Amino acid sequence: MAPIVGVRACVFDAYGTLFDFAAAARKCRDVLGNDIDKLAMLWRDKQLQYTWLRAAQGLHADFWQVTGDALSFSPETLRIDKLGLHDRLMALYLTLDPFPEVHDVLSRLKKAGLRTAILSNGSPRMLDAAVKAAKLDTALDAVLSVEDVGVYKPHPKVYRLATDRLAIPASAIAFQSSNAWDAYAASAFGMKVVWCNRYRQRPERLPGAPDREVRSLSELPALVGVA
């Protein structure tokens, strides 16, 4: 794939892009057994649905509450009743594993002189915990939360956070997300977009379109001109 020209900063979604949201469920294999994947996916789907529904209603709550509400819904729906599971999974969500390539990719981008940042639905507390647990704090110039604008993605106010804080125009930012709807929304806002399609989603029928599609962030440095 041809490189994307004019990129001065790389901004990343957090959950599903840098951090593996299914890692919490996998660490509860002793009680979840064969229900790991079903719980992880339903929890994630409901978590996102609640962000969109709250945004539409104008009834914002931070991502910690939304994540907990989605988790309360999911085991009940799947008829999983394990004492202490809710609290255990929520604690594990604060220290999700980064995907294997993340450290190397961020290091290469920083060494090349590009700005790096997270732009996430996550609350500041959640993001701070995840970044520190993964030892990514020195690899990032900024960690931006939707709490600064009080509304979730895909509202344009969220993407504007990155342009305002980094003082870089949208056209000079490469935005990376594993969520198709997020990738399309960032493109519609005016960012260059690399859709990290880890989960083999189908293309959306939404405004905007990713500039490039990859399966792993390991492909990103070459796409932004980093050897």
Task: Produce a short descriptive summary.
The protein is an alpha/beta fold. The protein has helices at 23-26, 29-32, 36-57, 63-78, 85-93, 102-111, 124-133, 156-166, 180-189, 220-223; strands at residues 9-12, 115-120, 142-145, 173-177, 192-196, 212-214.
Describe this structure in words.
The protein is an alpha/beta fold and 227 residues long. The protein folds into 2 domains: 140 residues, Rossmann fold, CATH 3.40.50.1000; 71 residues, Orthogonal Bundle (DNA polymerase, domain 1). It contains 10 helices and 6 strands; from the N terminus they run E-H-H-H-H-H-H-E-H-E-H-E-H-E-E-H. The longest helix is centred in the first third of the chain and has 22 residues. The two termini are 14 Å apart. The model has no long low-confidence stretch (mean pLDDT 97).
